[in-house]
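Case study B.
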Amino acid sequence: MSTNDPNGLLLVVSGPSGVGKTTIVHRMQKRLGGRFSVSATTRPRSKEEKDGVDYYFVTRPEFDRMQRGGEFLEWAEVFGRHAYGTPRRPVEQSLERGELIILDIDVQGARQVRQAMPSAFMVFILPPDEDELMRRLQARGRDDQEAIERRFAEAKHEIRQATEVKLYDAFVINDDLERAVEETCRVVTNRWQNISESTSSSQ
Ligand code: ADP
Ligand code: 5GP
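Model:
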């Protein structure tokens, strides 16, 4: 996706663990282009994940140094266990180039981004129902049963939080994957066009 808008589009995608954010974002990128913002985290890397691709896996002292140095656009302790943060510079560079930049971050992070960049577009992905979310957490094959149970409880909390705060511009139910990707692309493209039109009409 490209535009003459010098400000680009900052897209925040949130949703509970296992709902399908990574899958949707990858497919959306294939259609619309854009860049995925790689977060820094103190959480341990799982065997499927690659450093610098899925996350920058850093130690707590490194994370704290980055945070103190103002290197994060937003950061949060997600469910009180591990710290996650969005490196500021790559986001700014993408926006300066007029690109789409996609952040997969939690509700706390989305709140901070809304403060820092009010024009960000924010989408929350919902599961069709709780049983299906549990199935996907298991299908992902990343966590043991205890971690799955914990993520499931946290997911319900996160969904409640997201639907109570007036933060998200769109909610997409990830029932059928292709349908959900289509809908996400549609709402993002609509927003993108609105920005381009308002920029060109003000020139
Ligand atoms: P998240 O990034 O939100 O944690 P993932 O994208 O890793 O979630 O998806 C979790 C699991 O659910 C994966 O095994 C993925 O293939 C599967 N999945 C994603 N979307 C769907 C869908 N619409 N229907 C069935 N399975 C899905
Ligand atoms: P996971 O450990 O399953 O990859 O991610 C756990 C949660 O952390 C997800 O809700 C994900 O959106 C969120 N997350 C990932 N990166 C960031 C980040 O940079 N900032 C914030 N605030 N949340 C993040």
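Strands lie at 9-14, 35-36, 39-41, 55-57, 72-78, 82-87, 100-104, 121-126, 170-173. The remaining cases will be described in the next quarterly update.
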